[in-house]
Amino acid sequence: xxxxxxxxxxxxIKNYALIEELEADFSSGLVIITGETGAGKxxxxxxxxxxxxxxxxxxxxxxxxxxxxxxxxFNIAGNKNVRSLLKANELDGTDELIIRREISSRGQSRCFxxxxxxxxxxxxxxxxxxxxxxxxHEHQSLLRSDTHIAMLDDxxxxxxxxxxxxxxxxKLGVAAEQLEEMRxxxxxxxxxxxxxxxxxxxxxx
Length: 205
Prior knowledge:
The chain is of the alpha+beta class.
């Protein structure tokens, strides 16, 4: 049994493993996929893994086809982290994010965000901010200690205060560097003064 939360609006799978074409709609809320062992549940999860940066193999391309396509549509309206990452990489971002992965029968792999080509590394970064595959530890943010503080801040509605604190902390860091530079300059001037005073005393002897 697998569950999908409404952050993912839909999933399209074409020519992947045994699947010729499958389109699933998750926009209505929590969706549970159940079935007997061997029914194909893991194939859907593996396909989802491709659009969040998992490694791809040419073996996933359905026999007789040139390429496999997996495309996910996500709602990122409230996901500031994804929006910031998109902006930092000069990618257009609206409330809807479309991630697509294409695997060719020749072994080539391509990644797209809103039809713009991206690297697999960037796709993995975005995917980690969008999806938790429970049971697959490499995508469980709850098991990564570096995500815990951000989760607590978000749950407590403290994001605004965190941003304000971060801004003040950066200013403090700049001020500390400036103070250290002034102290170093003062020390250099003191050494220079002492040297000049020494030279004057030598001349007066």
